[in-house]
Structure formats: C-alpha cells, structure tokens
User: Which sequence fits this backbone?
C-alpha cells in the first residue's frame, strides 16, 4: 500500500563535474544539445563557445562569428559549442541556462547529475524550490508552482502539492508525502491533487494509489477503470 511516497530529488542544481564529464563523453545529452540548436537564418545569429585556462581549470564563454567576445569565459562547463537561443552552463553554485547576452534565464532541474532530459518538447525547471516546465527556447511554459513534477508522458505530467523535501541519508534529499494530480502541457489541472502517489500515463491510462490505500487504474479524466492488486 502506498500511503506516502519518497522520490529522490535534487533542487540544489550543483553538479559533480567528474560525473558530468563522463556523461557528456558518452553522449548522454546529445538530444538536448541538438534540440537547443537550430540552423541559423543569418551568419551572426549564433555564438561559438571558446575556453581559456583558469586557476582551477578551463572556463568557457562565447564569441560571435567575427571572433569578438560576447560572453566572457566564466563558466566551468557548457553543454553546447554553438549558442543559438539558450545554452546550459555551470558556475560554482550549479547549473543554469543563459541567453546570447549571458543573462541567466532559468535554472534547470538536475537529473542524474545533468540537466533534465526533454520530453514532449519541455524540460523541468526549479525556482524558489518549486518546479515547473520550460521549452527549448528558454520560455517558461508552466510556472514553478509545484513541489514536484514528473516529466510529461502521454500528454500529462504528475504534480505534487504539499510534499516536503527532507534529507534522508546526509547526502540525498527526498520528497515525501503531499497529494498528486495531473496537468496538461498548457499547465491546466486535468485531475485534481487527490492521490498519495501517481504514476506516468501510458496508453491513456495510469496507476495511482488513493489516500486510503487503494491501487487503481485511471483514465485521463480520472475515471477509475479497474482496482488493481496491492503490489506491497
């Protein structure tokens, strides 16, 4: 019976660069790199990454196509060698997304020690310890109003309200308790927060647990299709 849930969550955005380099060497974020780039319409519509050696390793910045420095080298890592509209970079205190002026536009959710993966053209963001979604141009599509959100699946994303982030082992934080519901890509709540746990939608259906311990299969309107065996 799932009367509460614990989900590992890292809202600090601080990277472990040893792991980050391994991830990027393996190409794990190639989807994000390509997705955040598009073919330029004119020659000067993009910037090119460059690095200079700093006191503790290389620092990254961006130049225009004429070789002029537009964003001074101050980032410890970047996910993209070409900046069209947005790039993910790291500073001492963690990951952030910048525009072509070097202005911070948002903070991505950290997943597996890297920026969140993209599903349904959206990725998760963090603001004031709340979560929402942005698109690949850096536009915030769903404001960070939730204690946790799952990635979009089958057009809907599970959200948590009232959950509390607690340290569980001295190193990792976890989200506990609260109620779960579902939102669509416009940010509209399609199923109110009422479940003690909510799974991803697949093939129009999702598994949920009610606050009184029932394990149910529901459709996208919240209609109960079937009561399922208690897996625990």
Assistant:
């Amino acid at each position: 019976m799932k009367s509460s849930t614990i989900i590992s969550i890292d809202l600090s955005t601080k990277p472990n660069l040893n792991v980050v380099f391994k991830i990027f060497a393996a190409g794990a974020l190639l989807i994000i790199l390509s997705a955040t780039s598009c073919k330029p319409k004119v020659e000067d519509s993009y910037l090119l990454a460059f690095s200079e050696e700093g006191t503790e390793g290389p620092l990254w910045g961006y130049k225009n196509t004429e070789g002029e420095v537009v964003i001074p080298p101050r980032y410890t890592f970047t996910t993209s060698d070409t900046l069209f509209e947005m790039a993910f970079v790291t500073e001492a205190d963690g990951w952030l997304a910048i525009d072509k002026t070097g202005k911070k536009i948002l903070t991505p959710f950290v997943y597996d020690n890297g920026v969140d993966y993209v599903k349904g053209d959206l990725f998760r963001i963090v603001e004031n310890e709340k979560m929402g979604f942005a698109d690949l141009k850096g536009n915030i599509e769903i404001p960070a109003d939730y204690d946790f959100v799952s990635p979009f699946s089958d057009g809907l994303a599970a959200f948590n309200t009232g959950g509390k982030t607690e340290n569980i082992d001295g190193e990792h934080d976890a989200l506990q308790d609260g109620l779960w519901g579902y939102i669509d890509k416009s940010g509209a709540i399609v199923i109110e927060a009422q479940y003690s746990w909510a799974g991803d939608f697949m093939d129009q259906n999702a598994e949920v647990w009610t606050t009184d311990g029932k394990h149910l299969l529901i459709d996208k309107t919240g209609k109960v299709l079937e009561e399922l065996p208690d897996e625990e």
Remarks:
- The longest strand covers residues 189-198.
- Residues 6-227 form one domain.
